Amino acid sequence: MYFLTGWPRRLLCPLRSAEEPFHIQPSSQRFYFALLSETQLSIWFSRPSVLIVSYIESAKAAAQFGFYQKAEWKPDDSMVAVATANGYILLFDVLGGGEEKYLYEPVYPKGSPRVKVTPGYKEEQCAPALSLEMKKPVDLEAPITSLQTLQEDLLVCTADGYLHVLHWDGLGSNGRKAICLTTIPFSLDLQSARGGPSLDLEGVYIRSMEYCLTLDGFAVVLSDGRLGFITPLSSSITADQLQGVWAADVMDGTCVAVNNKYRLMTFGCASGSVLVYMIDTTTGSMQLSHKLELTPKHYPDIYNKTGAVKLICWSPDYSVVMVTWECGGLSLWSVFGAHLICTLGEDFAHHSDGTKKDPLKISSMSWGAEGYHLWVIPSRQERRKQEENEEQDVEMISPPHPSLQTGILQFHFIKSALTVNPCTSNQEQVLLHGEDRLYLTCGDPRQIHSTSDVHTNLHPQDGSPMHHPPNPDSSLSQGLSTLLGHKHWHVVQIHSTYLESNWPIRFAAIDTAGQCMAVAGRRGFAHYSLFTRKWKLFGNITQEQNMTVTGGLAWWKDLVVVACYNFTDQQEQLRLYQRSSNLDNAFASVTKLHSDTLLLNVFKDMVILFRADCSICLYSIERRNDGPTPSVSVELLQEVSMSRYIPHPALVVSVTLTSVRTETGISLKAPQQACMAESIMLNLAGQLIMLQRDRSGPQVRDKETPAVNKKLLPFCPPVVLAQCVENVWTTCRSNKKKRHLLEALWLSCGEAGMKVWLPLFPRDHRKPHSFLSRRIMLPFHINIYPLAVLFEDALVLGATNETVLYDGLQGSSEPLVALFPYCTVERTSQIYLHHILRQLLVRNLGEQALMLAQSCATLPYFPHVLELMVHVVLEEEATSREPIPDPLLPTVAKFITEFPLFLQTIVHCARKTEYALWNYLFAAVGNPKDLFEECLMAQDLDTAASYLIILQNMEVPAVSRQHATLLFNTALEQGKWDLCRHMIRFLKAIGSGEMESPPPTPSTQEPSSTGGFEFFRNRSISLSQSADSISTGKFNLQKTFSMPSGSSAKGRDVECAENMYIDMMLWRHARHLLEQVRLRDLGCFSAQLGFELIGWLCRERNRVARVDDFVSALKKLHKDFLWPFPVIPVGSLSSPLKNGRCRSGEQTGNLAGF
Amino acid sequence: MIEVVASMARGPVFLAGELLECLITFTNPMSHLSTSASSEMLAWASAQIHCQFHASENRVALPAQGNKQDVQADSDTVLIPSRGERGQCVLDTPPKILFCDLRLDPGESKTYSYSELVPVDGPPSFRGQAVKYVYKLTIGCQRVNSPIKLLRVPLRVLVLQGMPEPPFPQNEEVSPSNPFLEEEEASRRDATALERALDMLMVTTSRRCPHMFNITNTRGKVAKFCIFKTVYRLGEDIVGTFNFSEGDIPCLQYSVSLQSEEEIQQQYQRRPGQAISVSGHGRHVESCLHTASSHFSLPVPLNVTPGFSTDIVTLRWRLHFEFVTACEPMEPPTVLQNQSEVTVWAGAEHVDVDTFSWNLPVKVLPTNPALASYVSQFIGTNSINI
């Protein structure tokens, strides 16, 4: 996934000119960019971003051709075609690209102490020298609306309704064809009878067009706003071989872009929304997949005021799309519509003082190589404004002088390693890569797993948890909270030597432990270890330059697995390099491959490759330690041809081996077996396809020769599991206790959120009925873009863009800093368990929900999950306008009673929801009075105190006082001093309050769900609010006791009565303690509550303070204070008892004196 | 055999003044079912934090020291934590005895908790080119009539210099302490040491005050540089912006490196006027020939030592800039419209260049030790068998 970082960079054209560029067109590899202004064609280089050459038209030619409008590159970068206003196609030869000639090569002064800043500056940091030569122009005699290059041809649409096919070589003379739009038959799908030419195409032309390779056709927007798709029925484009399809009911199309990897056509509309279409493979009709629209919820100011969609730009890897509107702004979406960034809101749209900024209006934009940059040309008036601002700051001396073109902005992006290299270990860690650095999450979730495992393993075996490792629970929760709480990344800068010669980085991979990373650029690769903090590069630069990574890279244990092309042997290879040894081919294991590799993945001890011939190969890896140096042997296990199911190899997004099965035909097996490579998951253009191993054969064979058999088991025909899939997560780990979470399949589906394919386990291991399904697909919404699933922790990790404004700072004259916020990426995480539990309950799968919840009950945030579940259901059902015949809240409540946290969960949830919903809540979960009493019985006083707040708001004061007294007494008895102090406050507050009686709590039978406001009272006491003042004013309590706070006489009376009441209770408790000779408790009681002891003891001198049973009192004292009994000297065995009596008297006296 | 495992749940990184807690578990690993099982005895165990100082011979001249005896007799029962370590022990906490006469039955294990304040006045953990300060928690155990065995747990200590003293509690009345009030205040005070340090860090590093610099060389103005603050925490990004559009001299390339300078105090230098050792911790290089404005962001690594000073060594941080500029100012050529001939402008093949450099001192402060723990090389758990 893509995230914006930093500020944009602004480029400066070294030529002064009155004209300003308005169009940018990248070459096929995005190393060159063609920029057009009215009479000028300039070519820029990507890195360094410098101007190479500029062609300025002569006045005569400019008058003949008209102004430049659009440009297109020939696929091999050797030519640029420019469309002009008067209907000409100008063809420019781009010369000198391959020669060893460079521009801006620095010449250091002789005798300079430091000759070069960077070694090898010349080759890497210089732009190649190019020159432009115009060839014969072609006159198409009508304004040109669209240009599109094919492999050999250039397709041009003109405003007279024609489609011209021109050959790149010998343009204009041979091979020129013109097809009239009216001759193309259009229908709603390809199956319906081919009618004649559509009549209503008269006078209509193609406004915008783009060719989709994987659909083999053109997505077009017609001048009347209709959308269509034109496909050639044969291999060549000829007039009578074209067939068109309409998109139904759309009349306001403005622009189009296609996604070759996911076979999607995106059309911009005048309404401001982007429609994403796919082609139905059976009928050939255009089907709306989803829309990209700003929501009124997130963009209330702008969502319907954006104007028409102006430009749509898919990133080079087709995983995100950038959209801009007439009113400006940049907006980024994932392929299936998850919204990532929009510069029309928040810090992008407002200054730090709250004033509104003008949105950045864009006339043209283009992604740079590998999507690390977005080159943006702001539209003219925008730049004017910017310059005016600058002129205010810096007084320009000569305004009439043609100014420098300062138009191009480069936005920087970092992206998830998953977008191009979706190998398994990248899915378990969050790894982002920018142009020159890697971002990884701090903290290792695996460590947490291991501690939790230790915990579960050790506990039952050993009866003495006292002597066991450091309180695994606390470390677990601490680990997790820090893991979740920190938004920091660990940033690793990519080694500059590698980066300079191999920019841009194309693949990145991290190992499962999150300790080792590998990156691959144009040639070779390099890896880094967090242990050593060092990069390892090829020692031999020739070896590095002789290979290029083609299918991605992955870690297997401490080896880097690379699918690459070897330039010396001219063959595709699978290589494994040891991390510990030098990076050298001498230490590599090399396996020859027969076809180009497109994707690579690792599952346990297997490597899975997807090749350009649409076949999947499984290899086994085995480490051998027999030789002097450890070696690795790679063996081909199986080859599966997929060409029947895959129309084009470029459509495969990811391929994974998993242990997931639908479990048809076999009963539930032990988890060990569940960890075998059971099926292949293939993401084909967003369609998730599963191929299971065919176990329909006789099962006996399984046992005979399992090793051989495993290799030979063929795969069943594919089954489609889900649509619109962006990423898939599975794990090969197993945990008997968390089977639901570990054996599930997690999918991210763009705007639709996530889906989980959850296994359903039969109860009590009975043989399941064959008609019951074994798995269920549950969708759920999350607020973040998911990048990793922590299976055991029931967590999703992601990242979001955050912004910081720097514009309010003094002296920052930099206009860009004032114009844009500084963008950072922060890691986020989300719990989702409550969604799943709820969905299971809705589907009457409560048993599964219970099993799942019980497996997660030890998670530190599990109470939060339950709370969220009640809260969400409560909010939904209590505020629903329509009656709910089958409310879920009672079910949820009953579900939670299965957990010891029930009482706590309900009261926490209640206190976080508004008062108006309480009646609905307690009608479902039970009377708060009963719940309060349950808390008291369970000795959970803190929760009981929380219920007291509820009671106090829902009941008459008498009831809440009665309950408060109960709680106060229990708290005194248990020595919960903080709570006692709170209760004293509470009781006083109740007494001082007004005496009118609110209606009693409705009983569960009364379905009065609305109108909760009539119970509302102004007075409310919050324990949490008063907690601070109370704990600091511990010693002042006595003072407040005697100080009446009420002003009116009546208030004072009430106050006094209340104080009396409390004092009575305190005395009673003190008497009770003294009666039982609990002097230590009495001491604490007095110290903690500021109970005035001396006077009281004086008063009680002859009552309860009298000791009757001296022996037991003495024993009790010794026990209380852990005071050893006096050692009786041998000689004085017959000492009189009187001594002891004296002693005890003394001691009690002393203690009472405190 | 007895297995001794020491583990610090909080991670191996601490801020000076913080309470270090380590749980030390002694286990008799024999199963009580095995035939040769027997109880194991340990005479005593004791633990201590100490800091070892080591200086490179050819950079630091230390005053001659009496050779401390490093050899320990087998029969000795004195724990010398620095035994067998390189360098000298510059700081140690008082040893704490964990137990005497421990008997472990087969399969039995016992855990002891060791806690100690990490000394406030010590140097931070530092591995420089001339000087090293290494902190360790050493646990010594001895069986009767056997040599002392040492278990070492390396730690990393961050020092926040200039930490304010804890404020004197104002609210509490000056009254004789009540024995029935538990010692909760004391523990609360320890916990706030870290909080106060973090607060102070937050306050000092979150303040933004932009500094503007005009970068010029002898030939003219090159660029305008702005940095938003000069005090950073570990793990933070140093962000600065460049504006080249107003410069007279074209700049082809610039680089920014984050560097630390390790300087030996004069009286300890091996050679007079010896060079300061400089090491780099991240570099940003950018070509900026046709660039109007740009910015860099350099992360301060989490594993480096923040700036500090002892009587032997001073560590300072700086940003080192290098610029490659053209020798002459280049007036941008003007493209005139409506020329009778086609004009093709191409960039120059060679540019005569000059280089110059500049240093900007910055301050690097510690961060939350929990955060630094994540990237620590130490794992916080060590074990030996005795």
TrEMBL record, chain A:
Superkingdom assignment: Eukaryota
InterPro entries: Ric1, RIC1_C, WD40/YVTN_repeat-like_dom_sf, WD40_repeat_dom_sf
Residue span, RIC1 C-terminal alpha solenoid region domain: 834-992
Polar residues bias (residue ranges): 450-459
Keyword terms: Membrane
SUPFAM superfamilies per record: WD40 repeat-like
GO biological process: intracellular protein transport; retrograde transport, endosome to Golgi
The keyword Hydrolase appears for this protein: no
Region (Disordered): 450-479
Main subcellular localisation: membrane
Entry's Gene Ontology cellular component terms: cytosol; Golgi membrane; Ric1-Rgp1 guanyl-nucleotide exchange factor complex
Any Pfam family hit: Beta-prop_RIC1_2nd
Localization: Membrane
Entry-linked PANTHER family: GUANINE NUCLEOTIDE EXCHANGE FACTOR SUBUNIT RIC1, RAB6A-GEF COMPLEX PARTNER PROTEIN 1
Protein name: Protein RIC1 homolog
Automatic annotation (TrEMBL), chain B:
Coiled coil regions, renumbered to chain: none
Region (Disordered): 166-186
GO BP: extracellular matrix constituent secretion; regulation of cartilage development
InterPro entries: Rgp1 (IPR014848)
Name recorded for this polypeptide: GP1 homolog, RAB6A GEF complex partner 1
